[in-house]
Design goal:
Number of helices: 3
Number of strands: 13
Strand order of the largest sheet: 6-5-4-3-2-1-11-10-9-8-7
Structural class: mainly beta
Mean pLDDT: 88
Order of helices and strands: HHEEEEEEHEEEEEEE
Largest sheet: 11 strands, antiparallel
Oligomer: single chain
Distance between the termini: 38 Å
Radius of gyration: 17 Å
Low-confidence stretches: 4-15
Length: 199
């Protein structure tokens, strides 16, 4: 799997693997209120874009792409917005319809829609999540590394999303910082169809 192969596991890891990966992931999600990181996004054709990720639970996330890329993805707590400034187009999905919902709502019961995947490295935790009633929402596979000192002993390293059309995109994270101050205004954006920031 591309995502697993790309993970660079830190040298400092916890010695004992936990018996319940899903419980560990739930504990990690509940322990993290905010996160910032650099990301690299790779599409099915191998094209990569970079940028900065800002997350604030519940429900808020921002993918700020590198300079010169006229795209922005923002979750404002209720909806996930994709804004393409080059064509002044805005798309909207309810948070619950996005595979990212598992990362944005720590109160969800993972056992209802997620499962731990087997790995050959005890330092790696892989979780696959999808809504069996709505396969059109896609499937997300999330990768964590067991790192001593990280929230609940896990470091979010990235994820891959497989959509209903069979297209896969991968996000790899670096420079993660947890529970740092993040202002609500980070999740505002300028609507290209009108003047002024959207709140």
């Amino acid at each position: 799997m591309l995502l697993v192969a790309a993970l660079a596991i830190p040298a400092v890891v916890s010695a004992q693997p936990a018996p319940s990966p899903l419980a560990d992931v739930s504990a990690h999600l509940r322990a993290v209120d905010t996160m910032t990181a650099a990301f690299t996004q790779t599409d099915r054709n191998g094209k990569s874009l970079t940028g900065t990720l800002t997350l604030k639970r519940p429900g808020r996330i921002r993918f700020q792409y590198q300079a010169g890329v006229p795209l922005l993805v923002v979750g404002d707590g209720k909806a996930l917005w994709m804004i393409d400034y080059s064509v002044k187009q805005v798309s909207r999905w309810p948070i619950g319809n996005s595979p990212l919902g598992i990362l944005l709502d720590p109160s969800r019961d993972l056992t209802r829609f997620a499962r731990a995947l087997p790995t050959t490295d005890p330092r790696v935790v892989l979780v696959e999540a999808r809504d069996p009633k709505h396969p059109e929402y896609g499937t997300i596979t999330i990768a964590f590394a067991r790192v001593a000192g990280a929230p609940a002993g896990l470091m979010l390293r990235g994820w891959s999303v497989l959509d209903a059309q069979g297209n896969r995109s991968t996000i790899q994270l670096s420079g993660q910082r947890f529970n740092v101050p993040v202002e609500d205004r980070a999740f505002r954006w300028t609507d290209p169809r009108q003047q002024g920031p959207r709140r």
